[in-house]
Amino acid sequence: MPTILTSVRAFQRLDSRGKPTVQVEVETKDGKFRAIVPSGASKGDYEAIELRDGGEAYGGAGVRQAVQNVREVIGPALLDRRYDLEIGLKEIDSFMIALDGSPDKSDLGANAILGVSMACARACAAAKKIPLYDFLAGELQSSPHRYIVPVPFFNVLNGGVHSGNTMTFQEFMIAPTGAASIAQGIQWASEVYQALKSIIIKEFGKVATGIGDEGGFAPPITQPSEALDLIMAAVKAAGHEGKIKIGIDPASSEFFDDGYYDLGFKSDKPKKLTSTELADLYRALVDKYPVVLLEDPFAQDDWESWKYFHVVSKLHNVELVGDDLLATNIMRIEKAAEADACDSLLLKVNQIGTVSEALAATERAYELGWSVFVSHRSGETTDDFIADLAVGIGCGHLKAGAPCRGERVAKYNRLMDIEEELQAKKIGSSYAGKSFRYAHSQAKSE
Ligand code: 2PG
Ligand code: MG
């Protein structure tokens, strides 16, 4: 007997910024399966479109139309098609893409379509009686040969459009690559986070311990070197020197204007840098601090700078990740591959709008010899889907914010659950650790 959808429901709920988002609940004979959609603040121009209602309610950010599209269009159409969930998700996602018909999902809304796609992925896993991460691994043609638990990159200092301080760069992340397990990595990160809080109190007073959208602190600092010095001091105070690496996401599309990068965009004093000057700044940071990953160092259409800097990043062995540049979109990935602009895909399911397309983007990145870095959004929910996604695709690393705030720790807690589940079942798994970048290709070639 096939497993079919018996109901598809949708609701308007809130995300971690208190803004409306779409929650979907699908039902099969196995039970009810729910998903809640995240939303970005530093959104790229090439992302699929999330529908917002406009008007007065919620300052125009309501998602009633997207909810209605699930209830009245997508849901009834899917129930009609009677897809067998044991066969998988691809047919369902392709059907929704065709039903929408637009190139960027602006007709039904990427937020409507993605909610259904994620909830259906959970229903598919249940139909096959396997965990979600196993199901997602099975949907990927090049699924790894063993389970890899990713290295979490914790965004402990928030800047850019995610905080109210004058820090230009958006994210400063710590990555416990020297840990032996994710449980140990999370413990170390939490210890560094608490040490960082004490240092911030000492330097700036208790008033400076407020946090940004992703749970990291947002003290009154402006220079990237100030942020990195605080982090290095915290790593040392927590006793984890040498075992923790750094990732930076400047989210530079946010401060690129008219050919210049304005490092003063959050203050009233402009500080305009050419792309060459900005590249020099990155080079100095990479030389001085243990930086292993740099995301969106240049704006989404500043191809020449990306191309130039990719040569530099390779020499320094720094992973160069495309977020706004690629928008989890295969067409952008092809363009970047042709230009040799980067070597890593930031994977955000809501940038493209279905789980299957996110998996296809992953597949393409792997074929190109790139790495894949799974990511949350700054507007998140307690949905922990991306934890299973990162294990399923075996990509070796993910970012889900600081070890603080419910919607961030939901992902880290789920990863510890998965690690323990695999241990309990005596299934071989390994924490990606120092090989986080190429964990997938290593596991594949074993
Ligand atoms: C990013 C993300 C997530 P946002 O730029 O990588 O950290 O931010 O969701 O606001 O786009
Ligand atoms: Mg980014």
Automatic annotation (TrEMBL):
Cofactor-binding details, from the entry: Mg(2+) is required for catalysis and for stabilizing the dimer.
Positions of the Enolase N-terminal domain: 5-136
Active site: E214 (proton donor), K348 (proton acceptor)
Top-level taxon in the UniProt lineage: Eukaryota
Annotated Mg(2+) binding sites: D249, E295, D323
GO molecular function: magnesium ion binding; phosphopyruvate hydratase activity
Top-level EC class: lyase
Keyword Zinc belongs to the record: no
EC number: 4.2.1.11
GO biological processes: glycolytic process
Binding site for substrate: H162, E171, E295, D323, S375, H376, R377, S378, K399
Catalysis performed (reactions): (2R)-2-phosphoglycerate = phosphoenolpyruvate + H2O
Keywords attached to this entry: Glycolysis, Lyase, Magnesium, Metal-binding, Pyruvate
Cofactor entry: Mg(2+)
Annotated metabolic or biological route of this protein: Carbohydrate degradation; glycolysis; pyruvate from D-glyceraldehyde 3-phosphate: step 4/5
Sequence ranges assigned to domain Enolase C-terminal TIM barrel in this UniProt record: 146-439
GO cellular component, one term: phosphopyruvate hydratase complex
Alphabetical list of HAMAP family matching this protein: Enolase
Similarity comment: Belongs to the enolase family.
PANTHER family: ENOLASE
NCBIfam families: eno
Name of protein: Enolase
Source organism (scientific name): Exophiala sideris
Phylogenetic placement of the source organism: Eukaryota, Fungi, Dikarya, Ascomycota, Pezizomycotina
